[in-house]
Write a structure and sequence with these properties.
With about 220 residues, the chain is of the alpha/beta class. About 45% of the residues lie in helices and about 20% in strands. Helix 2 packs antiparallel against helix 5, helix 3 packs parallel to helix 4 and helix 7 runs parallel beside helix 9. The protein starts with a helix and ends with a strand. The structure holds S-adenosylmethionine.
């Protein structure tokens, strides 16, 4: 890691908000088990986006044990609705337990199975959407949910810059290098396809924030 990157990470970490008690437990569990959570720097962005947008309905694709959703919840009204999805029943059980103790369980629906199928079982629009499931299925998930994002709503996708992706190849791809993705992995191709899809939709304005693992933040403007 070069010195600028190291200083940036330390700077953002030092300025990130403190975990509450339940979040601290979640973060300790994640650290001890090598489980990939968004972390407090990106988490505080989720809280900020929730609060700024005034969103009252969240749908997450890939919730794990619910850490990212706790950050959204901090920025949402007390009666906001949260829909968590996870195909691992043990993680979903942990989410139920953590949410119970965080006082969030009553407003949360815990959905077990494939998020791309589960989203079809929930009616209505969503003000906040998180993609943090299989990277090669982000574009497919966007296609399924995009018409159901409220105007003024926000879609966030994690792992634009880090995670199971080859970031150097992704950079070449977005710069327009021909065949840049030919020899890379499905996750990297998935992130590239997602960025293509969301940026091609004129109803969404997209920026990428180099916080945590890199967040693509897309606001539905029409
Ligand atoms: C990176 S973790 C999510 C972390 C979580 N967003 C957080 O920051 O607290 C990804 C999770 O998505 C789950 N997952 C992956 N693909 C899924 C799918 N299609 N449907 C439901 N869950 C999925 C995995 O089991 C894993 O627990």
């Amino acid at each position: 890691m070069d010195i600028l990157t190291e200083h940036t990470e330390r700077f953002l970490a030092a300025l990130a908000p403190e975990h509450d008690e339940v979040q601290a437990e979640m973060a300790t569990y994640a650290a001890n088990h090598g489980f990939p959570i968004v972390g407090p720097e990106a988490g505080s962005v989720l809280q900020f986006l929730a609060s700024l947008s005034g969103g009252t309905r969240l749908f997450e694709f890939g919730s794990g044990f619910g850490y990212s959703a706790t950050w959204f919840a901090k920025g949402m009204a007390d009666d906001a609705e949260l829909f968590l999805t996870e195909h691992d029943p043990d993680e979903l059980d942990m989410a139920r337990d953590f949410f119970d103790r965080a006082g969030l369980a009553d407003q949360t629906t815990f959905l077990e199975g494939d998020a791309l199928e589960l989203v079809e079982t929930v009616d209505g629009e969503f003000d906040l959407v998180l993609f943090d499931h299989q990277k090669h299925r982000y574009a497919e998930a966007f296609d399924i949910v995009k018409d159901r994002v409220s105007v003024g709503g926000v879609v966030v996708a994690d792992n634009m810059m880090r995670g199971p992706i080859d970031f150097g190849t992704l950079v070449e791809s977005v710069e327009g290098t021909p065949n840049a993705l030919d020899a890379t992995n499905a996750d990297t191709r998935g992130i590239a396809a997602y960025l293509d899809a969301v940026r091609a939709d004129p109803r969404f304005e997209t920026i990428v924030l180099p916080v945590g693992n890199g967040l693509a933040v897309s606001s539905r403007v029409e």
